[in-house]
Amino acid sequence: MHQIHTARLNASMPSSADLEELFALCSDERLWAHRPSSRHQSPEQTKTMMDAWCNSWDECGLGTWVIRAREGEKLIGYGGCSLIGGSYWNLGYRFAVASQGQGFATEIARAAVERAREKLPAVPVAASILEHNPASSAVAQKLGFTLAYRGLDEGNPDPKAIRLIYADRALSFEQIAQIAAPSH
Questions:
Q1: Mean of the pLDDT values across residues 153-163?
Q2: Over the chain, what is the mean pLDDT?
Q3: Which of 55, 88, 175, 183 is deepest in the core (most CB within 10 A)?
Q4: pLDDT band for position 33 (50/70/90)?
């Protein structure tokens, strides 16, 4: 599970060799229109993110992958499911501007959800999305996820930002609270 291959993508567990390309992706302001304050300002910030992904890999054998097109070596994004607190799988992804609008997010999300269900089928998969990011909501809906929560995005610099949580099944109040917490 450290590597997967879909019809158009190669995805693998991140390594230190990916840091430079990941930082370039995570610092691209065009990718953070929905939450500019989350754009990475330093490679250390990206390394912290990668360390969290690797913790999920170490804990349960699944986490977020770095993604390359099957015909290329350049990193075009990241995505996957990471286990959070043993309570839920967090589905997330981000793709370079040139790779958006081609269905890659849906492709990697489907593969990630499939692997998460194989690993820990009793654990729900959830996607936490800002309401003004309709493309991500569309991916969650294509996966068959349903809206489990809609409310103010606590901790967001935009006090009017709305957080949506989609999930593959019903979530407990505690799971919703954990997913909606400002650190996520």
A1: 90
A2: 94
A3: 88
A4: confident
